[in-house]
Amino acid sequence: MRKLVWLTDLHLVEQGRDWPHGIDPLARLRYCLDEIRALHSDAERLVISGDLIQIGNPGAYGILRSELDRMPMPYHLLTGNHDNRAALLASFPELSSAEGFIQGVEDLGDMRLLYLDTLAADGKHHGELCPIRMRWVREQIRSADERPLLIFLHHPPCDIGVPALDRLRLFNSEELGDLIRARNGATHLFCGHVHRNASGLWAGHPFATLKSLHVQFDLDVTGSGLTRSIEPPGYGIIFIGPNEIILNYRDIPAL
Ligand SMILES: [Fe+2]
């Protein structure tokens, strides 16, 4: 089986800055990358689905670059609501795309990996796909034909049942849903942003969300504000076979 490794919501900070929630995000990232080097060095890609830095810490992209450049496999980065495209591109110029967004597509064997940029134009915390991005997404999904398609995006396109998180999901996801619903080939969405593991069906195909490597948010089904959870951090290992896509969730110690 082919193997991918998936991380999300690192929330790295610049040297000397306060740690969000009192948790050292770099210590957790280093633990995770060490484990991946030891156990999953055969993964074909390492994907990080956004919130690479804590908002207002653009210098942290340089820290991320030096950590990732020690990994044996190629990596791909997405934007989240805490990210800054210009600062991200300054450290990772290879992520630039003709459309001006941090979005990309890769064909790995007979499967297509699609990396979306759902950062809102107004810098707010919900997600969006403007008409320019939607046109590109439409072309990539249609030209995938019936090949397996794995779509990575920061903001989930649907609710997960936690009101404080659901109000910050991808807005106006109907067209994306129509494109996915029309597909015949295997399709799976992988989303960050909610700092929780959740999975289900949307637009006729499976989706999963993933724990942050940093703080977790609680399964608070009534509150209107974000509540921190005691759950440990984690990441994902994705196996792809001829007729299956399998996500394994892996916790790491809450350093
Ligand atoms: Fe986040």
Automatic annotation (TrEMBL):
Keywords: Hydrolase, Iron, Metal-binding
Record-annotated Calcineurin-like phosphoesterase domain positions: 4-196
Source organism superkingdom: Bacteria
InterPro entries membership: Calcineurin-like_PHP, CNP_phosphodiesterase-III, GpdQ/CpdA-like, Metallo-depent_PP-like
GO molecular function: cyclic-nucleotide phosphodiesterase activity; metal ion binding
Classification via SUPFAM superfamilies: Metallo-dependent phosphatases (SSF56300)
PANTHER family with a match to the protein in the record: CYCLIC NUCLEOTIDE PHOSPHODIESTERASE CBUA0032-RELATED, PHOSPHOHYDROLASE
Family: Belongs to the cyclic nucleotide phosphodiesterase class-III family.
Protein name: Phosphodiesterase
Gene source species: Paracoccus saliphilus
